[in-house]
């Protein structure tokens, strides 16, 4: 056993103090380091059969889309975008059939009106679902789409629809009326927090899981 001298004692205390200070600094840096962003692949399509006006198309790309990018970006979600041609046709039973969709991403399809198969005369601004073929779809009706207008009531259409995907609502097939109402309320609450408070840790965490399920 080594004899403890005053020099050894002071050296040990200094080393312990330096180690503790380093540990505190590492902890501080780790705590303040931002979490890595969540990257979600988005494939954008304008329905070639839609009768959208130039004003509706400009309104989406100049107001609705940039707002969605900013709000999700504020909570650490980024989009990896691609663009391609596509269209919506109708088959038996008025069921819509989509051409141009891609697997492994969330397909954002812009059209004039939501097909009657889903809309049923309600004038919906958007629908987000997973098709039977496995593609993920957010369908936006430019005739009714809008940016943020009123908290909890009229939120950015693109943000609202993407939240249904990021919060993994699309994996619940045939939800009950109660489940549908509950997730609509939750989505509007989350969209309001993103808009007014720039707060979305829960959205980011869920989106990370969603993105991992796409690959």
Keywords:
Collagenase (Catalytic Domain), 19% strand, alpha/beta, single chain, 45% helix, disordered N terminus, 215 residues, 2 domains, five-stranded mixed sheet, two-stranded antiparallel sheet
How would you sum up this structure, described in words?
- By secondary structure, the chain is of the alpha/beta class.
- The chain has helices at 6-32, 54-74, 116-119, 157-166, 177-197, 201-214, and strands spanning 38-46, 77-83, 87-90, 96-99, 106-111, 126-130, 136-141.
- The chain has two domains: 1-33; 38-214, Collagenase (Catalytic Domain) (3-Layer(aba) Sandwich), CATH 3.40.390.
- It is 45% helix and 19% strand.
- The strands form two sheets. The chain has a five-stranded mixed beta sheet. Strands 3-4 form a two-stranded antiparallel sheet.
- Strand 6 and strand 7 form a beta hairpin.
- The longest helix is centred in the first third of the chain and has 27 residues, at 6-32.
In what range is the share of β-strand residues?
15-25%
Number of helices: 6
Report low-confidence residues grouped into runs of 5 or more: 1-32
Gross morphology is globular
Q: Regarding CATH, which class of the largest domain?
A: Alpha Beta
**Alpha-carbon Rg, integer:** 24 Å
User: Any idea what the CATH architecture of the largest domain is?
Assistant: 3-Layer(aba) Sandwich
What is the spatial order of strands in the main beta sheet? 2-1-5-7-6
CATH topology of the largest domain: Collagenase (Catalytic Domain)
User: Helical proportion?
Assistant: 40-55%
The whole-number mean of residue pLDDT values reads 86
Instruction: Calculate the terminal CA-CA distance, rounded to whole Å.
Output: 59 Å
Instruction: Compute the number of strand runs.
Output: 7
- Main sheet summary: 5 strands, mixed
Structural class determined from secondary elements? alpha/beta
The secondary-structure element order is: HEHEEEEHEEHHH
The count of domains is 2
């Amino acid at each position: 056993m080594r004899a403890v001298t005053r020099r050894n004692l002071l050296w040990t205390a200094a080393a312990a103090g330096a180690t503790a200070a380093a540990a505190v600094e590492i902890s501080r840096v780790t705590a303040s380091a931002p979490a890595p962003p969540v990257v979600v692949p988005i494939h954008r399509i304008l329905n070639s059969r839609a009768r959208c006006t130039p004003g509706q198309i400009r309104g989406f790309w100049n107001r609705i889309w940039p707002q969605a990018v900013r709000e999700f970006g504020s909570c650490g979600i980024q989009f990896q975008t691609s663009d391609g041609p596509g269209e919506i046709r109708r088959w038996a039973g008025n069921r819509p059939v989509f051409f141009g969709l891609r697997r492994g991403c969330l397909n954002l399809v812009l059209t004039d009106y939501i097909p009657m198969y889903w809309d049923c005369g309600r004038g919906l601004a958007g629908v987000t679902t997973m098709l039977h073929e496995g593609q993920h779809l957010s369908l936006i009706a430019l005739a009714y789409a809008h940016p943020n207008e009123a908290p909890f009531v009229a939120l950015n259409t693109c943000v609202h629809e993407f939240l249904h995907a990021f919060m993994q609502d699309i994996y619940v097939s045939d939800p009950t009326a109660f489940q549908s109402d509950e997730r609509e309320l939750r989505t509007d609450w989350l969209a309001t927090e993103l808009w007014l408070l720039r707060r979305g840790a829960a959205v980011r965490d869920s989106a990370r899981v969603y993105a991992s399920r796409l690959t």
